[in-house]
Write a structure and sequence with these properties.
Blueprint lengths: L1 H13 L17 H9 L5 H19 L13 H6 L15 H8 L11 H15 L6 H11 L16 E9 L7 E2 L2 E2 H13 L7 E7 L10 H5 L2 E8 L3 H9 L9 H12 L7 E9 L9 H9 L6 E7 L3 H14 L3 E4 L2 H19 L5 H43 L5 H55 L1
Parallel strand pairs: 1-4, 1-6, 6-7, 7-8
Antiparallel strand pairs: 2-3, 4-5
Helix pairs in contact: 1-7, 1-16, 6-15, 7-15, 8-14, 11-12, 12-13, 15-16
Length: 473
């Protein structure tokens, strides 16, 4: 199908490697040797001494200080924005309450010179951006969701998305110590257990269900690492869902120790090997709040697992993750062809499981009214596009506000003059305007892709319908 080919092409375009955080490390320098040499030189008049000191200072800065080349350009394209990670001061409650921390960072550059060049302005601009930059949701995930919404169609080019006579779903739940952190009215684990229970209560009677947990023994201490990293257990299934038995399984463990995510996936691969993809639709949902801590490589394992005989779809929900963990979890979803979703609270976690329930409902009752289904997908995709545009716009506005807050505080601390403050804000507005244009163009591109795909799909449905009615006659 041409419309699905278009989706796959866009997936490739948006796929890239996450970039490392470009916030520079502290760079301490001194000019003691230069000062000593100046003090030993022969007396000169004040004007010459001033000129020589200025020259020495510039030479020392050029030799030892941070230059424009030490900072990556501010991204204004879709790929650059989608792949950037959060800076040190990304969306804090108030930059104005962080003067000491900000002063420490700004001391890396020091006060702006009296007559700054465009290059110097750009250096400060890039540095400040690196401090406050935020995560932009990856548009690739929107397109993957559109593909996932078509789950079950025999027209999809990848056979692992086709409905099979058997359906198996395994949830892999992080039970490491960090899952005991507060979330809403309970802990992260409380929220996760509640969401998982509600999700599985809707599975078809014919489906096989499994719950696998890891890190639920020992503590976070080094002395318990080996025991905790080996704590991986299938506490339920693969069996049909029975609420009482499943609830008992949920209640028998608590968040305790380390995070053996890679080994948990390996055990899942072994268990799923009995469910060949030729006769089974297999899904895995990973719910985790942290990065691998047991020396495994979950990205490599996820890639291997997706190519196994079971060919499971691996969807990953990062629950209140930091930037480093999110990067790893996103990569796991990317290499396995699954979807990564970030949930920061109970409501968002529920939304992701509700999306999964839609797939279960489709497997249970695949409707023949294809044209109506297409229109529903158009509406849903419109909400997806609007939601992504709103998130990107909000992130851009937040970044602008944070950058201006930083320059305001920096001016109060003596790093900028009033005139320099005004110029910095003007340059911030220019960068933000470029990003806003990119955000608007992204929305148009996604709408165009959606419309092309739906038009192709309508033609195919009409052709099939006409062919079927002709045969019936």
């Amino acid at each position: 199908m041409r419309w699905l080919t278009l989706i796959l092409i866009i997936l490739i375009v948006f796929t890239g490697c996450n970039k490392e955080d470009d916030t520079p490390k502290n760079s301490d320098s001194d000019n003691d040797q230069t000062k000593t040499e100046n003090s030993e030189s022969e007396p000169q008049n004040d004007e010459n001494q001033t000129e020589e000191k200025a020259a020495d200072k510039q030479a020392a800065e050029a030799e030892e200080g941070l230059t424009l080349n030490d900072f990556k350009p501010i991204p204004t394209d879709v790929e650059g924005l989608a792949k950037q990670t959060s800076g040190k001061f990304a969306d804090p409650k108030s930059v104005y309450d962080l003067e000491d921390e900000l002063k420490k960072e700004m001391n890396q550059l020091g006060p702006m010179s009296e007559n700054p060049t465009d290059e110097e302005y750009e250096k400060y601009l890039r540095f400040i951006y690196s401090l406050v930059k935020e995560n932009y949701p990856n548009p690739e995930n929107v397109i993957k969701k559109w593909e996932f919404a078509s789950f079950g169609s025999p027209d999809l080019p990848d056979s692992k998305f086709h409905f099979k006579e058997n359906y198996n779903v395994e949830i892999i739940l992080d039970s490491s110590g960090s899952m005991a952190n507060p979330a809403g009215n309970g802990t992260r684990m409380d929220v996760a257990k509640k969401s998982i229970k509600e999700f599985l209560s809707e599975v078809p009677e014919e489906a096989n269900v499994s719950l696998r947990v890891y890190g639920h023994k020992g503590t976070g201490a080094d002395s318990d690492k080996e025991m905790s990293c080996n704590a991986i257990e299938q506490v339920y299934g693969f069996n049909t869902y029975h609420e009482d038995k499943f609830q008992k399984s949920l209640n028998q463990f608590k968040p305790m120790g380390w995070t053996p995510l890679a080994d948990a996936l390996k055990q899942s691969q072994e268990a799923l090997s009995q469910f060949d993809s030729k006769k089974n639709t297999n899904l895995i949902y990973v719910v985790s709040d942290g990065i691998e801590t047991c020396d495994g490589d979950p990205v490599a394992v996820a890639k291997e697992l997706s190519k196994s005989n079971a060919q499971p779809i691996i969807n990953i929900i990062g629950f209140q993750t930091d930037a480093e963990a999110q990067k790893q979890l996103e990569k796991m979803a990317e290499v396995s062809g699954g979807i990564f979703a970030s949930a920061s609270n109970e409501e968002e976690l529920q939304e992701e499981f509700e999306r999964a329930e839609e797939v279960l409902d489709a497997w249970k009752d695949w409707k023949d009214d294809a044209m109506q289904d297409l229109e529903a997908k158009r509406v849903n995709s419109s909400f997806d596009i609007m939601g992504l545009h709103n998130e990107w716009s909000f992130t851009t506005m937040s970044t602008s506000n944070q950058m201006k807050a930083v320059v305001n505080v920096s001016q109060d601390l003596g790093f900028f003059t009033i005139d320099q403050l005004s110029e910095m804000k003007s340059r911030i507005d220019t960068v933000i305007s470029e990003i806003d244009s990119t955000v608007d163009q992204l929305e148009k591109d996604l709408e165009e892709l959606r419309d092309k795909n739906l038009e192709e799909a309508r033609k195919i449905v009409e052709e099939k319908y006409n062919k079927q009615t002709t045969q019936d006659d």
